[in-house]
Amino acid sequence: MNSRAPIGHLLKAGALFIALLLFVSASSAAAPPEVNYRFYCAQCHGLTGSGDGPNATRHQPVAPRNFTSASEMSILTDAEIILAIGRGGGAVAKSTLMPPFASTLGAEEIIELKDYLRRLCRCSGPETPR
Ligand code: HEC
Question: Based on the number of CB atoms within 10 Å of its own CB, is 85 exposed (0-12), middle (13-18) or buried (19 or more)?
């Protein structure tokens, strides 16, 4: 019986495990806002941001925000947008159909998403909260 084989297998399995760990930790690193938007937001807010994603149906009580509308987006402060993304619609007295993302996305990713939404509306928000 060859007693060395199991150790070889163990080493190979260990190397594979480390490779897998590296892959998983690399893939959980911050993604660019376009990628995060398509993955986490587009199903409700639409690929182009106009609030018409496949999960937004007229049977829902509220429509997802239309990010391409400067009139809708310019009344929101940057802080409100960041709060809504991180803590969900309920945190800004809006519908809880808007989910919280603070445990899914990093703080920097949320700020970058806010900047991405500002590019979609080509607008800025009021300086001070209303
Ligand atoms: C499950 C559907 C859904 C997903 C997914 C979703 N949203 Fe929303 N979102 C909504 C709805 C519905 C509203 C409107 C809430 C209201 O007006 O009461 C909303 C509102 C918002 C608002 C406006 C909040 C305000 O104060 O008016 C922002 C900003 C926003 N979403 C950002 C995002 C971002 C960024 C993502 C992805 C990371 C995302 N949402 C993912 C449904 C969703």
Answer: buried
The CATH class of 31-121 is mainly alpha
Choose the residue to mutate in 40, 44, 62 for probing ligand 1, maximizing ligand atoms within 8 Å of C-beta: 44
Question: How far is CA 94 from its chain centroid?
Answer: 18
Minimal-distance CA residue to ligand 1 atom 24: 84
Q: Is residue 89 in contact with ligand 1, taking CB distance under 6 Å? A: yes
For the chain, what are the domain ranges? 1-30, 31-121
Per-residue pLDDT tens for 15-59? 777 676 666 555 567 999 999 999 999 999 999 999 999 999 888
